[in-house]
């Protein structure tokens, strides 16, 4: 398995892995939004994206932000008027829960109060289903941590939903500790030095 940075030509496959493994708000909003997200994340200087390849196939990825408050703004800015109309339809037809969106906004607000300044965070991490539990997620996080240490960054954060027990167990196994719990979301932190 090879770990190397993603380039723009990987955005389609990265989006498909994200869409099929993560049921976060972006996935619930549709594959179109997820594709827009990866185009931005891969080309934006505030982030780095690493992929894990088996031969020529991308099978997992991690995206890390140097400044998560800016990443939240970037993500909110992805939605065009037609996206809002599509999302409204999803809410009206019960495919997307307004409560879930509300909870996410409340959680983001709690995190902003807890961490008002610039902080580094994992934005997305996903391993294709059939490759999970083979140490690939761990390798991606460890590689990302090495990169952050080179930049003299002292802490890495990540958030997940409290019902994502797999992710919680994964982050705890790497040494992340829970620092905040609010509106169905959990913020974890690891010291890098
Ligand atoms: C969470 C995720 C990234 C973990 O990646 P992975 O490559 O499967 O994890 P690893 O094989 O590196 O696991 C490392 C350790 O994490 C823990 N862990 C991983 N998956 C676990 C699971 N399903 N249940 C319990 N513990 C788990 C274990 O302690 C594991 O060590 P072990 O296998 O020696 O027991 C992966 O399951 C995934 O992509 N899930 C869907 C997307 C997602 O939820 N991403 C996180 C969003 S914040």
TrEMBL record:
Keywords associated with the record: Acyltransferase, Transferase
Superkingdom, taxonomy of origin: Bacteria
CDD domains recorded: NAT_SF (cd04301)
InterPro entries: Acyl_CoA_acyltransferase, GNAT_dom, N-term/lysine_N-AcTrnsfr
SUPFAM superfamilies: Acyl-CoA N-acyltransferases (Nat)
Keyword Methyltransferase attributed: no
Residue ranges of domain N-acetyltransferase in the record: 1-193
Transmembrane region(s): none
One GO MF term: acyltransferase activity, transferring groups other than amino-acyl groups
Acyltransferase listed as a keyword: yes
Pfam families reported for this sequence: Acetyltransf_1
Protein name: N-acetyltransferase domain-containing protein
């Amino acid at each position: 398995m090879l770990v190397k940075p993603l380039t723009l030509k990987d955005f389609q496959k990265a989006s498909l892995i994200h869409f099929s493994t993560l049921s976060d708000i972006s996935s619930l909003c549709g594959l179109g939004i997820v594709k827009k997200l990866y185009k931005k994340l891969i080309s934006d200087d505030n982030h780095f994206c690493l992929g894990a390849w088996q031969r020529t196939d991308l099978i997992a990825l991690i995206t890390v932000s140097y400044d998560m408050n800016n990443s939240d703004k970037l993500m909110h800015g992805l939605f065009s008027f037609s996206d809002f109309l599509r999302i409204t339809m999803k809410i009206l037809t019960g495919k997307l829960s307004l409560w879930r969106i509300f909870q996410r906004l409340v959680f983001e607000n709690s995190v902003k109060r807890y961490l008002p300044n610039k902080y580094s965070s994992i934005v997305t991490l996903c391993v294709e289903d059939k490759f999970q539990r083979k140490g690939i997620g761990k390798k991606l996080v460890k590689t990302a941590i090495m990169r952050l240490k080179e930049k003299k960054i002292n802490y890495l954060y990540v958030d997940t939903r409290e019902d994502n027990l797999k992710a919680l167990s994964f982050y705890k196994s790497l040494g992340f500790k829970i620092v905040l719990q609010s509106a169905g979301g959990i913020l974890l932190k690891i010291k890098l030095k």
